[in-house]
Amino acid sequence: MISGSVIAVEAFERRTPIVEAVQKVGPAVVNIYTEETPSQIQNPFRNFGGNFFDQFLKDFMPPISQKRRSLGSGVIIHPDGYVLTNEHVIGKALRIQLSLIDKREFEAHLVGADIRSDLAVVKIDAKEALPYVKMGASSDLMIGESIIAIGNPFGLQHTVTSGIISALNRSLKAGNGATYHDFIQVDASINPGNSGGPLLNINGSLIGVNTAIYQKAEGIGFAIPIDKAKRIVNELIRYGKVRQGWLGASVQDLNPEMQEHFGLARAEGALVSQVMERSPAQIAGVQPGDVVLSINGKGVKNRSEYLDRVATYAIGNSMRMSLWRHGKEMSVSLKVAPLPKDFVERFVASRMGIAVAPITPQTFRDYRLASKSGALVVKVAPQGSAGRMGLLPGDVIRQVNQKKIANLEDFSRAVIEARNLSSVVLLVQRGRNGYYVTLEM
């Protein structure tokens, strides 16, 4: 016969740090259900052919719309009910429902989401007390240290996996075509449903946000470092969005020929191709032809890594940038500024070679437009990107990278979102005809 004291001792011995971490954090992990309405418009040139043509499309080619439910994870990070998750988990959710391990269920509303970082914050408006986890730090992570992931893979609620940190600062290209940097790589599987859940160290500290955005991996997983997430979370909670910071320097990748020309040991860094007037970069003395080697001591291998490093700094933050100029290394200090009010006007003039204006009753008549929706092109520089691709004054921009443009405000938002891309795809309407065009930026 086994005594109760022996069983108690055995239970104590089995109470490992992993068990303690899971018991500490588990109650704050949520299962996220969302309702979405995906809509596929079968003809992007609707409204181009007048009322008769529009009615024909409406009758015979209607939009496909249906609701579906998706599943993901999240973690409560504040006693007021703020929940951290992935942006791709909530997507275009119409309704967000959360459930806890104790079977309580809540409605939540979106506080803010950031596609670039794949992070989002939703909020539970609960009257009762909620468990939560304080955000830890990811700056001192060690390869080989133990980690724990909690989530809801494939709908299996509150699943715990464990492993070690396999690598740090990983870059990978996700299924959506975007490249992400500075991931924590672990050998614990992170599958659909795990996305948005917490990655913990052996002490139960929140060190990352699990993401299954790269689904080709088998037997490995990736997480967004919590230090990177903190700034995004603060911006989303305070402003409902991530405010766009600005340095005013455009950069490009280096190739072996450029490496030799600039006297670099390796084709690594971000080559400054343009510096906007009155920008933080110009004020700091950055010049076209400089090569950015590092930002605050973190190496910059290419354009994508430069953009990702800069994106981690909030408006008002300062950074030290290491540059290669005329065969010597030097450094400058810059302060991240908010985008100026005339940014879009200056950007499209310098990078696209156009000027745009709203469609007013007067311009609608003057240009004999077929639609009152879009952004009107009023000037085209012949040698600019748009001029080389044949754009003309009187053309109407209806889409930017598949985002519908109803007015000048839509156009401005789309340009700001696309400002760090090397090219942009426009849907242009000329008269009653429409065509797509790619502009290099």
From TrEMBL:
Catalytic residues, per the record, are 88 (charge relay system), 118 (charge relay system), 195 (charge relay system)
Stored InterPro entries: Chloro_Bact_Ser_Proteases, PDZ, PDZ_sf, Pept_S1C_Do, Peptidase_S1_PA, Peptidase_S1_PA_chymotrypsin, Peptidase_S1C
SUPFAM superfamilies per the record? PDZ domain-like, Trypsin-like serine proteases
Domain spans labelled PDZ: 236-304
The protein's matches in Gene3D superfamilies, at most eight in alphabetical order, are given as: 2.30.42.10, Trypsin-like serine proteases
Q: Pfam families per the record?
A: PDZ_2, Trypsin_2
Might you name a Gene Ontology BP term for this protein?
proteolysis
**Keywords, ordered alphabetically:** Hydrolase, Protease, Repeat, Serine protease, Signal
Single annotated GO MF = serine-type endopeptidase activity
Question: So where does substrate get bound?
Answer: 35, 88, 118, 193-195
NCBIfam families, A to Z: degP_htrA_DO (TIGR02037)
Stated family: Belongs to the peptidase S1C family.
The protein depicted here goes by the name Do family serine endopeptidase
Its organism's taxonomic lineage begins at: Bacteria, Pseudomonadati, Nitrospinota/Tectimicrobiota group, Nitrospinota, Nitrospinia
